Predict the structure.
Amino acid sequence: MISKRRILVVDDNAGNRLLLQYNLEGYFEIDFASSGFSAIDKYKNHRYDLILMDIHMPEMDGIETTKQIRQMENGHRTPIFAVTSNMFREQKKKCLDAGMDDYIVKPIHAKALVEHINHFLNTSLYN
């Protein structure tokens, strides 16, 4: 299913951004941010259907970035998925407490990721 939904990918690692671009291109419109600060700037200027947020970034991590985005929301809640290489119980709790909606564990499998995003967007209350 081809979607014109817009996704913001936030990751400080250029290789991870490239991999996500390769996996999501053609299914979604994609914007990229290489830091939490850049993600906040982009969020202020664009409306996204979903944000994929790396957890471990220098300066401002994904948890803090999510908290700040949640404070800026005004009538439209953007789904945020954590993207991480490990999701232990404590990490999952921190993500959910920060306002994240779901998580993706690396390594990322392209078809499963696209299906998961589409399923979430098509069945969630965010429509």
Summary: The chain has a mean pLDDT of 89. The domain at 6-121 is CATH 3.40.50.2300 (Rossmann fold). The two ends are 17 Å apart (CA to CA).
